[in-house]
Structure formats: C-alpha cells, structure tokens
C-alpha cells in the first residue's frame, strides 16, 4: 500500500550513545525521515549517527552551527519548520531519543498515523519503563532489558503530534514540556483529542550514573537558574542523599525511576508500596517490525566510573553559586571565581589539579549553563576531570615519538599573486589530480571517503570524512569538508585552531572570537584561559550586553577599549557586515600593539575587486544583486551576504590600519588538510 502521508520525526539529542541507535532504527520503521539536532555531545552519539547515515538510513543531522540551539523550544520549532516546508511533511512527531511510539492494538503504528485527521491536536499517554537491578543484568538493547513499566495513574504528561495544517496554516508551535503544542495569538481553536490507540514508551533511566545525573541536574537548575520552575521537596532530599553518600543505592535508583517527573501527591507513597502498582509487560516491536529484531551494531558497552560525587558536588555548587550571583559578567569576576574554585580543588584533590582547572575554565566560560540557561551535566564534567585526556603537550609529544610525525607544513604568502603561483606549482597539480579522483569517487559512491590523519584538535589520529557539505552539491568544497570524526571540525576550522595555537603561545593576552554558541568556541575555551565570545543579536541590543548568557557585539561598533585585545578570531563573519572597512578599523582599534587578527571568508581570489551585493543606505537595506544568505547559529533566517571579497581585501585591511596581511595555507595531507585551505592573518605593529 502506498503511504498517503509524509511522516517525519524530529529530535534534539545530547549524549545518548546507549540508546540513539535503537531509537533511530525503530523510529524509521514508521517514519519517512528523521531530522535531528545533535547538540554538541561529548560521547559517541555523533559517530553512531554518522554510521547510520552511511548505512543509508534517511537521517539528517543538524548541529547548533546550522540551526538555532540557544533554546530548546526554538530548536524544535526550527526542525518542524524544515520538516514541513522543505520536506513537505504532513505530520511531524517530536520525540526525545528515549521515546518510542507504539500501540497495544493489532494495527501497525504507521497505519494508525495514516488515518489521523490533520485538523485536530492528538495527544497520547506516556508509558514509562523503570530502572531495576534485573534490567541491568539482562542482555540486549534498552528495549529488550527494561520490561516493567509504571501504571497510567503515575503518568502526568502527554505527547502531542502536530500536522501541517496546525503548524503552517494555524500557527501552532511546539512547547518543550513533553513537546506539547500551544497556539499563537492568531491561531484558531482546534479540538484536542486524547488518542488511546497510540502511546509513547519512555526509557528515562537506564543506569545509576544516569539517574544521578538527572537528579543533580534538576536540583542545580532549580537552585541556581532563575525562572526554571519549582522542584519537589522529594527531589531535594534525594539530591542531598547523593551528595552525602556519593550516589544512590540500587533500590533508591529504582524508586527514583518510578516517580520520575511525577507531579501528583506523593505523601502516601512509601518505599514498600510502590511495587504493588508496577506492570510487567515487555516492549514489543510488532507494531513497527512484525518480523524484525532491532540490533545494536554501533552502541558501545556501558562504562563504569568510580566517582566521589560528594566532594565534586560541593565544589560544583560553590562554583555555580558564585558565578550565578553575578548578573554582569566581567573578566575579573570570572577569573576570581575560577581561582577560588581551583584553590578549593587543590586542597581536596591536588593530583587532579591540572585537569580540573582546565575543565573548570571551560565550564565557567561555556554558553550552556550561564545565568538563565540550563546547566550541563555535572556527572559528565566529573568524568572528564577524572578520566579525560592527558595534558595536551604530553599527549602531543607522546604521539610524535610513537609515530615520528613531522610538524605540520605551513605556507605563507604576502599577496594573492604569490598564492595563485603556489597553486599552479607541479606539487599542487599532483594534489589537485588526487582530490579530483576523491571527488569522483564520492559522487559515484554517494558516500564520504574516510581517510586517517592526525587531528591537531584531538591530539591524535582520527578518521577524516571527505564528502559533500550539502546534499545538493555536485562538487566537494574542501574548505567545508574534511570533517574530523572526533572533534567534528571541518578543514578550515581545524586549520584555524592550529594557527591560533601557533601564533598565541603561552596563552598571552585576551582573545576575542566573533562567535559564542559554536563547537569551535567551546574547544577554544579548552585551550586558552582568557577568551571572550559574542554573537550579533540585533540592532536593538547594546554592544557588550548579555542576553541569556550570550554577549552581543556589533563588529562595526565594538564595546572593547582601545588596544585591549591580543588576538581576534573571525570565521566567515566579515562577508555579513554592511560596512567592511569600518569593521576592519574597529578590529584594528581594539587590538594591542603586536596584536593579530586571523580570519576566514569566502574568497574569490581570481577577482581583482570585491563585489558589494547589498548595503544600508539612509537606514534602508538596498540590494545590488539577488540576496544570498548563509547559516546563522542564532537565527533560523540566516545571515545576508553583503560582500563577495576579491583581491582588493588587502587594500581594505591596509586602509583600516593593518601594516601587514598574509595568506596562511596548509596542504599537509598527514594532518587531513586537502584542497589547500587558507586563512588571512593581519598584523598590527
């Protein structure tokens, strides 16, 4: 039977390595496509998704560099917008990675979804499977191991399905609480129907470590983040238990999974009577796969960590309490908190000093837990502290000794003519022929080519994926591909990090980077102590103003004092600035003598004069060419391109005050740099 509807599932995932493969395989049994925002996981989730895509599963993964991840509500609605408008979905199902749509009827999930009307709001009950010691001892996937679920009376949340009519025509949007729907000011009334033919199996707790994480996270968000709602006294007591005893017992963990997210009256519930209402009913694949078994091909085995949560939680509390109390962040305040925290750590666990200080520095500067935002997982923070990579210098020296890897090859050019001559050399032609063969192979096989090379960001050899950066592309763009499977940075981003480490040794002076909600920014924090990031949040904001923990800056009117910044980093920003010369002058103004600016732009090296595509004239936006937009991590609308830069960019930078500008390039295949990616390096003497 030909499907009448296009049904697409959407999800935001982070650190779901134990369940993401199972979720994708199952969900695609009744959906036509799965759209996922991968929200900077630090486990194996991204690699598993890549493997599933290579198998040919219809999964499209976005990162927070492509769609807005400032808020979960914004992100999930961005995904729905893409599903409805780009992929012509009739029905969208918003899910978490631990949620599996199923039915107790004899029909399949797909047949039931096909019969739904598009002008009603359908809501389905959750069925929460609970954690138990028996489940931890069983083999198989999550769906195989957890066979006991709680009764309907303990389910206080409903899952909503949303149609094209509701979202596009009526203006309904998806909320973050169980992905319910809510109307806009102009939305017509639509009947809500509790739909008992479907239900959503939920597996929120899958290990004691994860239960610890969720409770700690809920408590800290309640205590330190404003406007995050009310948390039950029961949860506070459990948090104190974790802190006092360094974790939960197996029995305590089971109780927590039974009453997770329950908002009813718990006064009559005891540790002994909750068992009486539990239901033993294994999850069944038949509503989706009548003759099929879900298997885990890429899911890693569970890991055990011996972590003293009591000590760590005390330290994390002090750090967050000090930071969250400051409404206006300054470098002085940030460094004071960092130093106080590091001092406290040194008195308790001095042998972890270096790794803890490095990780703490990243936490304090990250955009994911500042005032008004949710905290990242403290348990995973601790795992990184206790089990993270060794010191960068030691790791690099160890690797080089073992593999005899030479230092990366760099090329510097003072003009476009010099770079063009370099690309016309016999060596470059040999590389171009090799890259053309890779291009033909990728187009023919319709999958990326994987090579093994040293990634300077990961400090070890990694698989580097060379493929099309857009599904519609007919040729490899080498600056946008060569993506490392470890850090997930592309060719120019890895080159940028390598150059920054080369020119900013000894962590000397403040770094200003013109982004703040990206993976690159967070990785930069891992390496340098004095990093300031920003985004452009709109003309109604003041330079230097913080909005939900994100700093606003206008490149044409920076808030920094004269000669206060040591290094400026800009990745594909200046083509989006209405007045490029003014922006370059501002960069020169805030740089200290001896300071540098390293930046990338889409560059048309064969064109003598830059093309101005648009401008602001008398407060009006004027287009000289067909509008062109690039992706923007803080706006789903993208960023307008004002300039296509040509060779005269050297003269622009000279007029702005920079005494020297170089093109910096690497063609070192052993470091995964194919296609001769290049950057600009401007000097203020």
Short descriptors:
single chain; seven-stranded mixed sheet; alpha/beta; 685 residues; Spore Coat Polysaccharide Biosynthesis Protein SpsA, Chain A; Rossmann fold; 21 helices
Summarize the structure.
This protein is of the alpha/beta class and 685 residues long. An eight-stranded mixed sheet has the order 3-2-1-4-8-6-11-5, sandwiched between helices. The protein has a seven-stranded mixed sheet with strand order 13-29-30-22-21-17-18.
Provide an overview of this structure.
There is one protein chain. The protein is an alpha/beta fold. The chain has 21 helices and 30 strands. Strands 3-2-1-4-8-6-11-5 form an eight-stranded mixed sheet, with helices on both faces. Strands 13-29-30-22-21-17-18 form a seven-stranded mixed sheet. 40% of the residues are buried.
């Amino acid at each position: 039977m030909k499907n009448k509807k296009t049904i697409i599932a959407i999800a935001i995932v982070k650190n779901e390595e134990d369940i993401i493969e199972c979720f994708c395989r199952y969900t695609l049994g009744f959906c036509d496509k799965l759209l996922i925002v991968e929200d900077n996981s630090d486990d194996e989730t991204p690699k598993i998704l890549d493997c599933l895509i290579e198998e040919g599963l219809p999964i499209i993964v976005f990162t927070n560099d492509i769609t807005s991840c400032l808020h979960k509500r914004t992100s999930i609605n961005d995904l729905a917008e893409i599903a409805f408008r780009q992929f012509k979905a009739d029905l969208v199902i918003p899910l978490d990675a631990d949620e599996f749509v199923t039915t107790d009827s004899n029909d399949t999930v797909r047949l039931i979804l096909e019969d739904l009307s598009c002008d009603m709001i359908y809501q389905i009950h959750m069925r929460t499977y609970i954690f138990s010691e028996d489940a931890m001892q069983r083999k198989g996937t999550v769906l195989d191991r957890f066979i006991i679920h709680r009764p309907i009376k303990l389910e206080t949340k409903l899952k909503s399905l949303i149609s094209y009519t509701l979202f596009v025509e009526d203006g309904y949007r998806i909320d973050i609480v169980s992905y319910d729907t809510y109307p806009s000011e102009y939305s017509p009334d639509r009947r809500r129907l509790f739909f008992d033919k479907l239900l959503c199996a939920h597996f929120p707790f899958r290990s004691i470590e994860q239960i610890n994480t969720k409770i700690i996270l809920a408590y800290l968000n309640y205590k330190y983040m404003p406007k995050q709602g009310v948390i039950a006294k029961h949860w506070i007591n459990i948090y104190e238990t974790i802190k006092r005893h360094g974790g939960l017992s197996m029995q305590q963990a089971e109780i927590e999974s039974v009453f997770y997210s329950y908002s009813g009256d718990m006064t009559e519930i005891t540790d002994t009577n909750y068992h009486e209402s539990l239901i033993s009913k294994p999850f069944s694949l038949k509503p989706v796969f009548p003759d099929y078994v879900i298997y885990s091909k890429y899911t890693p085995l569970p890991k055990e960590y011996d972590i003293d949560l009591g000590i760590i939680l005390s330290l994390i509390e002090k750090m967050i309490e000090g930071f969250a109390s400051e409404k206006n962040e300054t470098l002085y305040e940030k460094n004071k908190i960092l130093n106080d925290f590091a001092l406290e750590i040194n008195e308790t666990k001095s042998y972890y000093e270096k790794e803890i200080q490095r990780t703490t520095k990243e936490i304090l500067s990250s955009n994911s837990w500042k005032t008004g935002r949710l905290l990242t997982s403290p348990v995973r923070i601790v795992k990184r502290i206790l089990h993270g990579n060794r010191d960068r210098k030691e790791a690099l020296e160890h690797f080089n000794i073992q593999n005899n890897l030479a230092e990366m090859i760099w090329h510097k050019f003072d003009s476009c003519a010099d770079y063009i001559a370099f690309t016309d050399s016999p060596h470059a032609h040999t590389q171009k022929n090799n890259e053309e063969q890779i291009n033909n192979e990728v187009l023919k096989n319709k999958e990326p080519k994987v090579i093994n090379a040293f990634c300077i960001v990961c400090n070890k050899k990694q698989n580097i994926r060379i493929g099309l950066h857009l599904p519609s592309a007919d040729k490899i763009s080498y600056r946008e591909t060569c993506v490392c499977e470890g850090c997930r940075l592309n060719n120019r981003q890895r080159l940028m990090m390598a150059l920054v480490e080369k020119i900013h040794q000894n962590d000397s002076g403040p770094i200003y980077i013109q982004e703040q909600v990206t993976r690159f920014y967070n990785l930069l924090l891992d390496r340098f102590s004095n990093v300031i990031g920003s985004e452009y949040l709109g003309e109604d904001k003041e330079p230097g103003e913080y909005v939900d923990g994100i700093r606003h800056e206008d490149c044409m009117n920076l808030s920094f004092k004269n000669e206060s910044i040591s290094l400026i980093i800009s990745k594909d920003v200046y083509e989006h600035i209405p007045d490029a010369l003014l922006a370059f002058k501002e960069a020169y103004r805030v740089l200290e003598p001896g300071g540098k600016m390293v930046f990338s732009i889409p560059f048309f090296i064969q064109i003598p004069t830059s093309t101005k595509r648009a401008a602001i004239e008398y407060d009006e936006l004027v287009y000289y060419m067909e509008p062109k937009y690039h992706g923007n991590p803080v706006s789903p609308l993208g960023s307008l391109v004002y300039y296509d830069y040509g060779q005269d960019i050297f003269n622009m930078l000279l007029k702005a005050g920079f005494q020297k500008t170089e093109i910096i390039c690497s063609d070192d295949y052993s470091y995964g740099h194919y296609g001769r990616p290049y950057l600009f390096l401007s000097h203020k003497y």
